């Protein structure tokens, strides 16, 4: 088959051997991936494609990128998106203050040269070449990731926060792994970065962006994985307590709540219970600490009503 | 494999999923890196390359199960005997639980009692392979699949599940678990609930196993493509709200929340970015200091366009009720984007229901209360648009201003009462805009007792609004 599907030249040696290898590797750095997550990470490396991660808040979307960076020993470059992000913050910017200084400095030299009787003022072309050189370039995360010599993981966080038009900035980077700078030419990646984009799904992303990415939806984990995550991330927790927590959280997620408890909130809750020295959760303990898990008063009341009082059926 | 994939992609497109050519190519390439026997990995590989929205995942999963049904292609457990592991499991079971020595015979010959015990055991242990075995036997015994019938299998599923009586098994399991506790008396509500959820989860798994099994047999019978056609369903955003089943309504309800959140974000953004405001002189000067007093970047003030006021008048009789509820829910979910929202519901009488929404923070709850508490029946509980509109005019028309947009929701089926359409004429004169949303297909408008034509003549626009997609578009464009 075609080994060079993107015309990128060598897409580099495989970072991972197989899907199970990814899974084990991630577990070693403290991220318990399920089959789907590990599979997509593996494919992302093989196909040299960015991964677009969606899912509810607090399910480990950002953490995945961090863990992959740790696993592959790469540097993590993070671009936090926000409304109003533009190319001077995402790609590169000319350091025009410095450029201004350079031009003024040139003028001063001219005057001094003139005094000394020498006539060697730089021509405009020379000057232009000078002030539009790399020395005056401020690299921003995207360009930095492309220019990096060492392996990097690029994390574009909360990409749904930028406007639709700004998304277009990302396209060249994501599909060709290059950045065009009119004054300098095109900068291509020497080592392909692994790219993760996360989205909280507050708006529909453009088709063009989605098409270029592998799509990964990280949902709330199932009970076994959640239990494993709790045991793994909360030191000193007993298996029984972890099991009980996982089961309570699962039941909570079946209730209609405004905001369902996320994995990170579950972990906070588990840590709290451990600190408080609670070994089994009874109704009293649950009631007193539900506010760590749920963030709305109406949710807390409803959960307490559903879970802690005997129901008719 | 590539042919199979092409067929699969074709089917996804027919189901309404937007799969582009590039994505198809990506999938084809991804498949090279995935061992074909690994069904789960294959599913995620195809999912990651072909499906780019979580709301489409369900449709993808169904189609995937049909095209890459368990045991097809690899031929490991198609047809007669299952994989050896499951068979021995079954044998062990026949052996020790039923005490029937020398079972040995084909699985089809299991008695209903044996099957029931096995089901109970499977659910008690949460044993996946035993569940699959039970599913296989149950389908053989109860589903009564007729070869060659062009059906999607819903009826087979119903028949099998009815005979398995999962609800009763569930009760038994919970009762048994309760009895097994030494301190049965002080089993708290919390424990009880957790236990119930645990078993309910397993019963759902069981149901899914039966579904898979039926699907597998249907594929064997008629081929993937034919079956896919029978089970094809519209995506949630394209469901016809008026004719949705209860399950579909639940799907819609789930789809509504992310949709309204997205809509709110979009509207808020549009309001902020529509135009640039006037030049902000102070900010421009301050900014210019870093460039030696040269105003390189002019700054503008943020524009603050006025928010519209909305009045919703909704018919909540019979068939259009679910549509009215969705619209109210949506409008209130994004009410921060309007300066004021007031809502009225009617059948033949009319009542203001704004107060319900003010008391709670979840619109769904308020929508439920409307049904039980709003005073909307005047005579007989059949829609009477004329009466409802004239009452509206008498009591509330004074509060309609030039900043108000009025939305009327309903199919305009007036049961041959007087139309009183002058009310709409008056409203249009007073209001900023008057819209009519009709949840009926456009083809039916004006047929029978529908007087949408008469009413429509007074409106700024009459919009066909049958699906969430149409509804979202309308609300998104609202001014």
Secondary structure blueprint with pairings:
The complex is a heterodimer of chains A (313) and B (479).
Chain A: H1 19-28, H2 35-47, E1 51-54, H3 61-72, E2 75-80, H4 87-90, E3 92-94, H5 96-115, H6 124-131, E4 137-139, H7 141-147, E5 152-157, H8 164-176, E6 178-181, E7 185-188, E8 194-199, H9 207-212, E9 214-217, H10 223-233, H11 239-254, H12 263-276, H13 283-293, H14 297-308
Parallel strand pairs in A: 1-8, 1-9, 2-5, 5-8
Antiparallel strand pairs in A: 3-4, 6-7
Helix pairs in contact in A: 1-2, 10-11, 10-12, 12-13, 13-14
Chain B: H1 2-14, H2 21-33, H3 39-50, H4 57-67, H5 84-98, H6 112-125, H7 128-143, H8 154-164, H9 166-180, H10 189-222, H11 224-231, H12 246-273, H13 281-288, E1 309-315, H14 321-333, E2 340-346, E3 350-352, H15 354-359, H16 363-373, H17 385-396, E4 404-409, H18 422-430, E5 433-438, H19 452-456, E6 461-464, H20 468-477
Parallel strand pairs in B: 1-2, 1-4, 4-5, 5-6
Antiparallel strand pairs in B: 2-3
Folded structure, characterized:
The complex is a heterodimer of chains A (313) and B (479). In chain A, 50% of the residues lie in helices and 13% in strands. Chain A has helices at 19-28, 35-47, 61-72, 87-90, 96-115, 124-131, 141-147, 164-176, 207-212, 223-233, 239-254, 263-276, 283-293, 297-308, and strands at 51-54, 75-80, 92-94, 137-139, 152-157, 178-181, 185-188, 194-199, 214-217. In chain A, strands 2-5-8-1-9 form a five-stranded parallel beta sheet, sandwiched between helices. In chain A, strand 6 (178-181) and strand 7 (185-188) form a beta hairpin. In chain A, helix 13 (283-293) packs antiparallel against helix 14. In chain A, 35% of the residues are buried. Chain B is an alpha/beta fold and 479 residues long. Chain B folds into three domains: 2-67; 99-223, no CATH class; 254-274 and 306-477, Rossmann fold (3-Layer(aba) Sandwich), CATH 3.40.50.410. Chain B has helices at 2-14, 21-33, 39-50, 57-67, 84-98, 112-125, 128-143, 154-164, 166-180, 189-222, 224-231, 246-273, 281-288, 321-333, 354-359, 363-373, 385-396, 422-430, 452-456, 468-477, and strands spanning 309-315, 340-346, 350-352, 404-409, 433-438, 461-464. Chain B has a six-stranded mixed beta sheet, with helices on both faces. In chain B, helix 2 (21-33) runs antiparallel to helix 3 (39-50) and helix 12 (246-273) packs parallel to helix 20. The interface between A and B is large, with 55 and 46 residues.
